[in-house]
Design goal:
The protein has about 350 residues and is of the alpha/beta class. The protein has ten helices and 15 strands. The protein has helices at about 10-15, 35-50, 70-75, 90-105, 115-130, 240-255, 260-265, 295-300, 320, 330-345, and strands at about 20-25, 55-60, 80-85, 110-115, 135-140, 140-145, 150-155, 160-165, 175, 195, 230-235, 255-260, 285-290, 305-310, 325-330. The strands form three sheets. The chain has a seven-stranded parallel β-sheet, sandwiched between helices. Helix 8 (about 295-300) links the parallel strand 13 (about 285-290) and strand 14. The radius of gyration is 22 Å and the shape is elongated. The relative contact order is 0.11. The model is unreliable at about 1-5 (pLDDT under 50). Bound molecules: flavin-adenine dinucleotide. Flavin-adenine dinucleotide binds near residues 158, 274 and 295. Flavin-adenine dinucleotide binds near residues 234 and 263. This is Electron transfer flavoprotein subunit alpha/FixB family protein. Keywords: FAD, Flavoprotein. GO terms for molecular function: electron transfer activity; flavin adenine dinucleotide binding.
């Protein structure tokens, strides 16, 4: 069905059936609720309070019921649970069928997903099938109290402006939200809610996608989205050999290695190290930006770090407008001196 053929659903009475803010609860590989889902419960709670409606989670997986307590402690009033071995591994087809069935039955007005590989995949599949609109990579969320219109804002045009995207004609309104952008509520131990067990008539033989094997990528270093300290390097390091200086400082400090997009595109390091608009958003306690100019697309991914230390030989580099401490000079002189001083202090 082309967009032109979609039924017009903008009449008020049709929207009145849609109530409640939902968060898709993602489960990590270690069987815990993904931090981004806890953050979204915090964001969802604020939207639900403004709309005087309830906040619900949707949990899909195998042997996941026991996560209900965490979801309630972080703000949900209700949890819809699909707990079945068929949901053991994430598959677009199975998760989408469950979420579509739940949406059709209970009609939420807003659904939020983490902008993770799972959340992005699921949200786009659900949006296409419903059909409804989806704002990807949202960084600011609000809602109009009276109309219930979700105001989903995200950087646009290369990060130079913030665009607020509305979905006026369709429900539910949906958005994916980057990890580490929203704040989780302080958990309330012992807080409870209503668990609603759901199921769909789906047999394994009807599912086209099979998970044959899971091959885990071995990443030797700490992940940048989890690290307390990140040493990030840019094109100013000159070459893959020059970029080794970043690894040396990271080794010394026990830090993760980050990079600008230009470094990733040059093939000096893999994409999962890229910080920024088209990479990962990070909020470490300490962020070193070395030989990085400070383009807006990089800044949006690290500007909420606790302490930003920039090293750049150009005093006019924009990174100096975004850092707490700036050192003007050649990275090849300053970084070895830092490593030496650190090692000396510890010996
Ligand atoms: P440069 O801009 O080339 O800066 C190198 C810096 O190193 C300069 O400031 C220079 O003074 C300094 N320098 C040189 N030699 C030395 C030395 N010896 N010692 C110290 N300093 C030195 N970029 C990202 O990083 N992440 C993103 O997610 C991202 N997404 C983007 C999305 C879009 C749609 C677009 C259009 C761009 C995106 N970019 C992103 C690219 C971004 O615009 C910049 O091009 C990029 O961040 C620049 O990388 P850089 O700072 O490493 O390189």
């Amino acid at each position: 069905m082309s967009p032109g053929e979609k039924p017009e659903k903008n009449e008020k009475n049709l929207f009145e059936d849609y109530r409640g803010v939902w968060v898709f609860i993602e489960v990590n590989k270690d069987g815990k609720v993904a931090p981004v889902s806890l953050e979204l419960l915090g964001a969802g709670k604020r939207l639900a309070e403004k709309r005087k409606t309830e906040l619900a989670g949707v949990l899909i997986g195998s042997q996941v019921k026991q996560l209900a307590g965490t979801v309630f402690e972080y703000g949900a009033d209700t949890l819809y649970v699909y707990d079945d071995p068929i949901f053991k591994h994430y598959r677009t087809e199975t998760f989408m069928r469950a979420l579509l069935a739940c949406t059709e039955k209970y009609k939420p007005e807003i659904i939020l997903y983490g902008a993770t590989s799972t959340g992005k995949d699921l949200a786009s599949a659900v949006a296409t099938d419903l059909p409804t609109g989806l704002t990807a990579d949202t960084t600011i969320l609000d809602v109009e109290e009276d109309t219930g219109l979700l105001l989903a804002s995200r950087p646009a045009f290369g990060g130079n402006i913030m665009a607020t995207i509305l979905c006026k004609k369709y429900r539910p309104q949906m958005a994916t939200v980057r990890p580490k952008v929203m704040k989780a509520l302080i958990p309330e131990p012992g807080r409870t809610g209503t668990v609603i067990a759901e199921s769909i008539p789906l047999r394994e033989e009807d599912v086209r996608t099979k998970v044959l094997e899971i091959v885990r990528e071995t990443i030797k270093r700490a992940r940048i989205d989890e690290a307390d300290i990140i040493v990030a390097g840019g094109k100013g390091l000159g070459s893959p050999a020059g970029f080794q200086l970043i690894h040396q400082l990271a080794d010394t400090l026990g830090a993760a290695v980050g990079a600008s997009r230009d470094v990733v595109e040059a093939g000096w390091i893999g994409h999962h190290h890229q910080v920024g608009q088209t990479g990962v958003t990070v909020t470490p306690k300490i962020y070193f930006a070395i030989g990085i100019s400070g383009a807006i697309q990089h800044l949006v991914g690290m500007q909420n770090s606790g302490l930003i230390i920039a090293i750049n030989k150009d005093p006019a580099a924009p990174i100096f407008q975004a850092c707490h401490y700036g050192i003007v000079g050649d990275a090849f002189e300053i970084v070895p001196a830092l490593i030496e001083a650190w090692n000396k202090a510890l010996s």
